[in-house]
Design goal:
This protein is mainly α. It is built from 38 helices and 10 strands. This is Pentacotripeptide-repeat region of PRORP domain-containing protein.
Length: 827
């Protein structure tokens, strides 16, 4: 005798026994009162057609629980069968009442509203106990994806299984201790019914095949058990050729013509074959099959994308098919509206979140909230971090509220991982004025959620307060931290040092230095030491007094550097005097880029002539070409190049060297923009930034080389470098230094037309004017003489768009104008 559950069920139904009364193959219980009813039902009652046994196939784990009442099951079957026929057109909608156990084990009524649209039944999910959905209202399509039931005839096989699935999901919800509304449970069942695969055998075959694929690919070996990977038959090859040769439209047409069993038969074999042989075609395959009416199982699609991500991500990053990209295919195929609700693989959600656009993230969050999708705390934080990357503060805070519904102690609101994420969120905080009161935007909302800031969070708040430009607000936060006994750490002192240096308050820096020196842990902190080194540079070398001893300043900076870092890289650059003897031996740690930059900038400011600077630049280029591990990182930003240009720009005879520096940045120092280090490291060489071009432009303006400056301006347009406030301030400063007052007036006017207003740097540049009253006269004359003056100052008016595109090949920076300049310098 066969003990297959399906065979037993069919046998019991044939003899008129209850389908839910059996508990083992050996127990047969005839129930009076049901034999005639079931025989009539199965023999072709009104409203039924064909062999009803074929339409009542269920697997063992989908049967109703043994505790369910036999009478209620029979009544449910009769009710579903009796309503199978299409109703009269006069009754466009009706409700079917089915009793479903709720998550507390109580019997609650649930209504399935059916509305006929274009000959189809649209199953609208709504529940009386779901407060997020208005009572007796169908969810709008833009909020929840509509689950369409094509026709009652097609769903004859699934009506009973729908009931069984809902009861099964209810039991699972009770086991997990997760309260769910009836609407969410029914929607989860509907999503599962859309899957191509409904039997455990299909999942077991897929998992075994995937495990073998992953293992073989990871170990770089052949498939050890080919029997696990089903071979393609002739019809499979026909579909494969349609994807490969005919394109998506032909494959889509062939796929949609097949019924569900045929799709299920083909999908696994084709998917496993494409994963091995053609990842790019696998994306096309998923693109079509995941948009069909019968979609593959969500977990199977996730497994496919995980395989592609792990082994073919780099190759697929540039993949494109029409308007679709790799990211958009993932976003479409892992649509949040197709996620299972009660038990969903979190890896699939993570993959979606990593690749989704902002619109996709918003849809996912809305769907999760409305459907009560089961998420882990880690998934919620991934959600939150993605919104933070996109600077969407409100959605990040909305996501954070989901943690209150998750019973995981390690992700409680006061846990370390949540508090650290909130610290990251606070870095996006801003100050806003409402009803005449200034307050932060994010901090109050975190407090409303019940989060109590710790010292780390208050450090971020302190930093935000000083960034507002209101020091009093910063000191108020500092007083709050003191009153709540928050112990200051390196982050606190770093924030205070940055604000003191930015404001030029040297006395505050000295006080902070005393506090830092009194604590061993802070005194040895490399970040604080680096900031103190920078502060010393700002207050001594950067703004050096005219009567200061340059050699003494350089020696003091060199001594402080020696206490922190290895002095060897400075010796290789030839900036350490031969007779220098360090007073003490320092920590001998490799220098940071900032430390190297500060020492080079100090050296340039302490040198009276440019011959030594030219020697240092030649040495810098040589070490860069060799890939020196200490020098190559300096070329990844434009800072050091800008310092070289500033050091050369004051003399007309050194303008050609300024041009040479920019040419080096554009051309031949780095092959394809990459520097190969001595140890195999790769460093990306920086291109001239808008600041670099602005300094070069100001150098020619200061030296009254207007024709060359015009060529610089054209090259800026050619490389799509637009004027910004830094550029305008450099131009105004150059004109003011050259006492070109009408040009200063025109530059200020053009800057305002470009949307930039004069700032403190602009005002400071005007101090170079010997006769500032003439500036206001020139401003008054601008309107009267605008045409003549605009023609004269065309190179320095508002930059116009350059019609050409930057060419890939390198070319000389200043073209004919600089050649003329070179001839002038040589004469």
């Amino acid at each position: 005798m066969s003990f297959c559950p399906n065979a037993i069920l069919r046998s019991r139904l044939n003899v008129g026994l209850s389908p839910s009364a059996w508990t083992s193959p050996r127990l047969w219980h005839r129930q009076r009162g049901t034999t005639l009813t079931l025989r009539r039902l199965l023999s072709g009652a009104p409203g039924s057609s064909g062999n009803s046994l074929d339409k009542l196939r269920v697997v063992d784990n989908d049967l109703p629980s043994p505790e369910a009442s036999q009478q209620s099951v029979a009544q449910s079957i009769l009710h579903l069968r009796s309503t199978a026929a299409r109703p009269s057109p006069a009754y466009s909608s009706h409700y079917r009442d089915i009793t479903i156990p709720d998550t507390l084990g109580l019997e609650t009524p649930y209504k399935f509203p059916l509305e006929y649209q274009n000959g189809q039944e649209t199953l609208s999910m709504e529940a009386e106990d779901d407060t997020s959905v208005p009572a007796n209202a169908t969810m709008k399509a833009d909020h929840v994806k509509t689950i369409s039931v094509p026709s009652t005839r097609k769903w004859k096989d699934d009506r009973l299984r729908l009931q069984a699935l809902i009861e099964q999901l209810n039991r699972q919800a009770q086991e997990l201790g997760k309260p769910m509304t009836a609407r969410s449970i029914h929607l989860d069942a509907s999503i599962r019914l859309k899957s191509l695969y409904r039997r455990p055998l299909g999942f077991r075959q897929w998992k075994s095949a995937c495990l073998e694929l992953f293992s073989a690919k990871s170990d770089d070996r052949e498939i050890s058990n080919p029997a696990l990977i089903p071979a393609l038959n002739e019809s499979d090859w026909d579909l494969f050729r349609k994807i490969q040769e005919d394109g998506l439209d032909s494959f889509k047409e062939a796929w949609e013509e097949m019924n569900r069993p045929a799709k299920a038969s083909h999908w696994q074999r084709l998917a496993l074959h494409l994963l091995q042989q053609s990842p790019d075609l696998m994306l096309k395959f998923l693109l079509v099959t995941c948009q069909s009416s019968d979609i593959p199982n969500f977990n199977m699609v996730v497994d496919s994308f995980i395989y592609l991500e792990q082994f073919h991500r780099d190759a697929l990053t540039e993949w494109k098919e029409g308007e679709y990209t790799y990211d958009s295919v993932i976003e479409l195929c892992l649509d949040p509206r197709d996620w299972p609700i009660l038990r969903v693989t979190q890896k699939g959600i993570w993959l979606f979140l990593q690749r989704a656009s902002h619109k996709g993230l918003v849809l996912a969050l809305r769907t999760v909230n409305e459907r009560q999708t089961s998420l882990t705390g880690e998934t919620v934080l991934v959600f939150m971090r993605r919104f933070m990357e996109m600077k969407d503060v409100d959605k990040a805070l909305e996501t954070l509220q989901l943690l209150s519904t998750i019973d995981q102690e390690e992700f409680a609101l006061d846990s370390q991982v949540v508090m650290r994420t909130c610290c990251k969120l606070l870095t996006l905080d801003t100050v806003q004025t409402q009803d005449g009161v200034r307050n932060f935007h994010i901090l109050p909302r975190l407090l409303e959620l019940g989060i109590r800031p710790d010292r780390d969070m208050m450090n971020v708040v302190l930093s935000n307060a000083f960034k507002t430009g209101d020091p009093e607000l910063g000191f108020d936060v500092l007083d709050f931290m003191k009153s709540h006994n928050h112990e200051f750490d390196s982050y606190t002192y770093m924030t205070l040092l940055c604000d003191a240096v930015a404001r030029g308050e040297r006395h505050r820096v000295d006080l902070l230095l005393q506090e830092i020196q009194s604590q061993d842990q802070l005194r040895e902190n490399p970040f604080l030491s680096s900031k103190l080194f920078h502060a010393h540079y700002v207050f001594t070398a950067k703004h050096m007094d005219t009567d200061a001893d340059a050699s003494e300043i350089f020696s003091s900076m060199l001594n402080m550097y020696n206490e922190l870092h290895d002095i060897t890289p400075l010796k290789e650059l030839l900036i350490v005097p031969p007779n220098y003897t360090p007073p003490i031996r320092g920590m001998n740690s490799p220098p940071s880029r900032i430390a190297m930059y500060i020492m080079l900038a100090t050296y340039f400011r302490c040198q009276k002539g440019t011959s030594n600077i030219n020697r240092v630049y030649s040495r810098f280029r040589a070490l860069l070409t060799e890939g020196n591990e200490m020098i190559a990182p300096l070329a990844e930003t434009d800072h050091i190049y800008n310092e070289f240009i500033v050091a050369f720009r004051d003399s007309p005879r050194n303008l050609r060297r300024c041009v040479r520096i920019v040419e080096d940045m554009l051309s031949h120092i780095a092959q394809d923009g990459v520097i190969e280090g001595e140890n195999g490291n790769r460093f990306i060489h920086a291109k001239p930034s808008v600041r670099t071009w602005s300094i070069l432009l100001s150098a020619f303006i200061f030296n009254k080389q207007l024709f060359a400056a015009e060529k610089v301006k054209e090259m800026m347009a050619k490389y799509n470098i637009q004027f910004n406030e830094v550029t305008w301030n450099h131009v105004i400063s150059g004109y003011a230094n050259a006492q070109m007052i009408p040009e200063v007036a025109q530059a200020i006017k053009s800057m305002e037309e470009d949307g930039y207003s004069a700032d403190a740097y602009t005002v400071r540049s005007l101090r170079y004017l010997r006769d500032p009253e003439r500036l206001w006269v020139a401003v008054d004359e601008l309107d009267a003489n605008s045409e003549a003056l605009d023609a004269r100052l065309a190179p320095f008016a508002k930059p116009s768009e350059f019609a050409g595109e930057p060419e890939k090949e390198h070319e000389h920076l200043l073209d004919r104008g600089l050649q003329n300049l070179k001839m002038q310098l040589q004469s």
